[in-house]
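Weekly modeling sync, notes
Attendees: S.R. (lead), two postdocs, one rotation student

Agenda item 3: backlog of single-chain predictions. S.R. asked that every request posted to the team notebook include the full sequence so nobody has to chase files. The rotation student volunteered to paste the first one in as an example of the format we agreed on. Action items at the bottom.

Example entry:
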Amino acid sequence: MDLAYLWFWIVGFLFIGYFVLDGFDFGVGMSLPFLGKDDIARRQIINTIGPVWDLNETWVIVAGAALFASFPEWYATLFSGFYLPLLLILLALIARGVSFEYRHQRESLKWKRGFDRMIVVGSAVPALLWGVAFANIVQGVPLDADHEYVGTLFTLLNPYGLLGGVVTLLLFFTHGVYFVALKTDGQVRSDARALAKTSGLLTIVAAAVFLAWTILQAANNEAPLLLGVVALSGIAALTLIGSWVANLRDREGTAFTLGAVTIVTAVAALFFALFPNVMPSTLEAGSSLTIENASSTDYTLTIMSWAALIFLPVVLAYQGWTYWVFRKRVTRARIEKAALVAH
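Predicted structure, as returned to the notebook:
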């Protein structure tokens, strides 16, 4: 296999990993106003991702670095054309990270409430804008003969792009609520199960429309991997419904696992629909960025392949070990005991 094609799928794998892992982080953050009835409950919710949120977030750094090294033309066009949305995502991630670190530094409820709002906004903005960005990448954007984006911010706010944003927002929210139910006890756990019943239904409806639209678009564009798009979209739909049913039966582990599979297959379907392009042009076919005309040299890709072969398994093993160490539920009694000791 040509190394450029291999790295297209590696980049896809890295973004899929990011959306699965930081996706439930976003969902946990967005769930604070719905599940955090008091400060103890809010601390319980935040502590479910306390040991892992920053590790999850590093996936986007690795994905961005891999994109820069393997497809410099794609990286240049994407980060210049989508500058404002990506800047908003960056600022939101900074605000969220600062809030996790500073929230507990003072006992003032006003202080904590302010950072809680920053966590919610810092989680919702990326969840929405990543969906808008990827939907537009798949659909295509106006690129000129020099592969430069010639649209505006409002060009990205088209019906398909906005629907993609709504789907990722709802999907990450529901995925995060499943995680809260899996990792907590008491009132927060039962409230999370109830919330997921409603958010899960909304997600199923929005995702069904988006996946059907994606399939029709891929068919109209005569995508070479159309059968893969259809198959992956079908799996995503089934696992999404399955996760909602599992939640109804109080099987949080199954619900969360199926929710993760939904994200994996849905994002994979987008990459299948995109192939062999990396950024289609809506102006003329010759202006599109493809795997072949956007990739680095074979020498660069060879070095990157050896680095990925050595270090990627190490990173995956370390992350798996981290989740194993922090696998226990975050109980309300433990938070209350810690609060008493602090006083």
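Discussion: group reviewed the output briefly. The chain has a mean pLDDT of 92.
Action items: rotation student to repeat for the remaining queue; S.R. to check formatting next week.
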